[in-house]
Please model this.
Amino acid sequence: MNKFFILLIFPILALACSTGKKQDEKPVITVSILPQKYFVEQVAGDEFSINVMLPPGASPADFEPTPKQIHDLNNSVIYFYVGHLGFEKSWMSKFSETARNVSYVSCSRGIDLLRSTHECQAEDSSHVHLHKDGTDPHIWTSPENVKTIARTICSSLSEMYPGKKGMFEKNRDTFIEKIYILDNHIRDSFEGKQDAAFLIFHPALGYYARDYHLKQYSIEYEGKPPSTAQMKALVDLAVKENISTIFIQSQFETSKAKTIAKEIGARVISVDPLAENWLTEMYSLTEKMNKAFTAK
Ligand SMILES: [Zn+2]
Model:
């Protein structure tokens, strides 16, 4: 009897939901981080409304989706997730149980992933950047990877909206053209600076370093602030590698970076790999990095 009642009322509910939607309401796409919002918009223009799981300034450490985010995820056609972020690891199975009609697409698909050389001991799985299987999750800091991400977004959207395939592909090509120009600019900037080293609080630039033959050292060790002994080792390393700039990210605490900087007389410069305007951030990052290398 109950079952019958549900069967009866379900079409009414569905109808109520569909008529409740405004005609001009855009379909929703969910992404994990802001740079992905930018990537989707490059390919899809303003065809979709984008739900970002980790909003600007949010602390990755105590990530907890809001009821509105869950609601928006439920209404999404696709969730483009990064692939190996810590919070995705802890939440993805809950998301897919709750929002069953969403198509889940990993942006790490087809990317040559960087594996950590050491065993990752970090247990704090709520932290956005930690990854238990030792994969570097920061795929979006490499222009080459972002070309792949743009292709993934384009093919997924084209499959879902075949009528708009031509438009998506044209946009994708325009975006990839911009990435080629960026890539050439970065290569020119670092000409003759192969193997230059940089020190950063949180190791978000592993793929960038790989693409442009730079050496990334991080202050954070396996997702945790360094111990006193590690701090001392970092000071020695910075002196040995002739490092005069330390990069920090606003999402992370900066006191340890400042202590090391004071010790070696280095400058502290802020970068934001989670900025929404990815292209602008990549140019800005390259300029800061270039200054850091020439400041020696
Ligand atoms: Zn990170």
